[in-house]
Specification:
Elements (H helix, E strand, L loop, with lengths): L4 H19 L9 E6 L5 E5 L5 E6 L1 H4 L6 H18 L12 E6 L5 E8 L8 H4 L2 H14 L1
Parallel strand pairs: 1-4
Antiparallel strand pairs: 1-2, 2-3, 4-5
Helix pairs in contact: 1-3
Length: 148
Amino acid sequence: MKLSTQSHSLIESALKEAVSRFAMGCEQTVVTDIHLLPKQGSGELIIFDDDDEELARVIIEEWVDYDNDDFYENVERMLRAAVNQLQECGCIRNLPLLKPYSFVLVDEDRETIAELLLIDDDTLLVNHELLEGLDEELDDFLKQLLED
């Protein structure tokens, strides 16, 4: 799925609008997750907090017409890139939120699909590619230890 420049801008604007809601307050807020809910049928991207308070909402035209089964996989990649770009530009660096908190992709049932970004001073979120094959390596290591 390819997004237009306008759709990329809409996603970026929605994310900035959502985080700006937190930047307005001076005291630290306890938020554990900022949820991103893409809706394939309506094309909506709804961003909300732990209390289900809506922080931003936009319509992404390309999502309305997209009917393949890999919708969430494509959207996850796009939203992860957008959230990472938001972090790189420094927009979420000094938010008055109690750490750790995450940007999370959720489905229509509000079930977590993927953690897009974890914000914490001393925790690193490793991605799937880095962990690929780790189980086998650990199993081999344990087997070798037990044999010796």
